[in-house]
């Protein structure tokens, strides 16, 4: 099977909560008010609780406590709140999956680290709506869960990366496509915005262009998260092309700060998005 076929088979496995579907419809409506959106979110206590916890986390650095969904909408805006709802909905759908073929603890920790690194770098580089890089980072490896459910032996084999063969290189060898390609197909089937899907789809691209900062940051995000997850195998210097730093006007010290940020905030975000995993830490 190719990446699209895996994604098509997985759509039913990753069932979004009804509240997400309704929120998405309202977000895309020209007539829906912020109160309409808040009312739908409030009907789902789990979504409401997680949304407020994330909105009040250090990730958003709000100057005061946000105690209601309505206020969160006003302060964060529809775009940021939509991205938060997406991240919660996807995490909820995926957290029900279980398997012995891959290390799910590693999967979630690395995904959340990538999300936080992506948001940090997007903010640092002055990109508008940096939350889209948070979502792209969170979902950057969701193709692994897709393959895990349909071809567990292949997913297990793809975990055997090493110093000599990076994860995406091994995926290409074993599957004929990368998890990034499979994940992008799934996100397209979910009809997520191109601003989220495109950086994820091109995270392994080495065609660097200064006019595509989202793609450059996505490239950095997955490599920094990987180096942070496996310091015994990889380092920033061996994974990152210095030209990318030059294009984004970044220094090595900026990358270290991004990793420090994800290490500081990662456990809290993990506890919100996937408490079943975080309880073991």
From TrEMBL:
The domain of life is Bacteria
Cited Pfam families: HDOD
PROSITE patterns in the cross-refs: HDOD
InterPro entries tied to this protein: HDOD, RNase_Y/CdgJ
Domain HDOD intervals = 13-206
Sequence intervals crossing the membrane: none
PANTHER family referenced in this protein's UniProt entry, alphabetically: PTHR33525, RIBONUCLEASE Y
The name this protein carries in UniProt is: HDOD domain-containing protein
């Amino acid at each position: 099977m190719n990446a699209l076929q895996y994604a098509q088979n997985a759509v039913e496995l990753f069932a979004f909560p009804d509240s997400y579907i309704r929120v998405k419809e309202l977000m895309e409506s020209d007539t829906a008010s912020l109160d309409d959106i808040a009312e739908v979110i409030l009907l789902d206590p789990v979504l409401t609780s997680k949304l407020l916890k994330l909105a009040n986390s250090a990730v958003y650095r709000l100057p005061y406590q946000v105690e209601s969904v309505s206020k969160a909408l006003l302060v964060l805006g529809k775009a940021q709140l939509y991205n938060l709802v997406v991240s919660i909905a996807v995490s909820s759908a995926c957290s029900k999956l279980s398997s012995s073929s891959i290390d799910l603890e590693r999967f979630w920790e690395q995904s959340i680290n990538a999300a936080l690194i992506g948001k940090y770098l997007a903010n640092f580089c002055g990109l508008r709506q940096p939350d889209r890089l948070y979502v792209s980072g969170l979902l950057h490896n969701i193709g692994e869960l897709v393959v895990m459910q349909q071809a567990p032996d292949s997913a297990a084999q793809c975990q055997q990366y090493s110093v000599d063969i990076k994860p995406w290189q091994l995926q290409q060898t074993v599957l004929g496509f990368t998890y990034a390609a499979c994940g992008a197909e799934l996100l397209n089937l979910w009809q997520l915005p191109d601003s989220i899907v495109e950086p994820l789809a091109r995270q392994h691209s080495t065609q660097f262009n200064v006019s595509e900062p989202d793609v450059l940051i996505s490239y950095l995000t997955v490599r920094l998260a990987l180096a942070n997850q496996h310091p015994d195998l990889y380092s920033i210097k061996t994974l990152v092309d210095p030209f990318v730093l030059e294009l984004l006007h970044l220094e090595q010290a900026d990358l270290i700060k991004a990793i420090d940020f994800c290490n500081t905030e990662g456990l809290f975000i993990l506890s919100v998005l996937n408490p079943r995993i975080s309880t073991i830490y």
